[in-house]
C-alpha cells in the first residue's frame, strides 16, 4: 500500500484565463489521454472564462462556489455537486469562500450516469 498527498501545495498555480488564486493538483494521467486532478480555488479566486480543450467533469468535493457557462449565468455549486462540459464549451468557475473540485478531463470522457440536474 502507498499513501499520497493531493494538497494544493503539491500542485501548480493556474495562470491562464486571467485566473486568480487558483491551483491545480494532478492526480494521474492515463495512456488514453485522461487527466484527473484537483482544482483548488482560494477565497475570492477564480479560473477565468475559457473553452474546454476536452470534455470535463468538475465535481465539488469541499467548500462551495460558482460556475458560469457560455450564457454567463452563474450557478452555485456545493460539495457533492458538479457539472459536465463538452469539448469546446466555454466556462469559468470561482468561489467567494474557497472551493476544491475533482476534475476529470479526456477526449473520450462519457457523461455521468443517472445524475439529476441541480438547476
What does this protein look like?
By secondary structure, the protein is an all-beta fold. The protein has a domain of 65 residues: Jelly Rolls (Sandwich). Helix content is 0%, strand content 56%. The chain contains no helices and eight strands. Strands 1, 2, 3, 4, 5, 6, 7 and 8 form an eight-stranded antiparallel β-sheet that branches. A hairpin with a 6-residue loop joins strand 1 and strand 2. The radius of gyration is 14 Å and the shape is globular. The model has no long low-confidence stretch (mean pLDDT 86).
From the structure above, extract its key features:
single chain, 119 residues, mainly beta, Jelly Rolls, 8 strands, 0% helix
In short:
This protein has strands at residues 12-13, 20-29, 34-51, 55-68, 74-78, 82-85, 90-95, 99-106. The protein has 119 residues and is mainly beta.
Write down the Rg.
14 Å
The third-level CATH topology of the domain at 44-108 is Jelly Rolls
Task: Please give the CATH architecture of the domain at 44-108.
Answer: Sandwich
What's the end-to-end separation, in Å? 41 Å
Largest sheet: 8 strands, antiparallel
Oligomeric description of these chains: single chain
Q: List segments where confidence is low: pLDDT < 50 over at least 5 consecutive residues.
A: none
Strands, total number: 8
pLDDT averaged over residues: 86
Envelope shape: globular
Q: Give the ordered list of helices and strands.
A: EEEEEEEE
* The CATH superfamily title of the domain at 44-108: Jelly Rolls
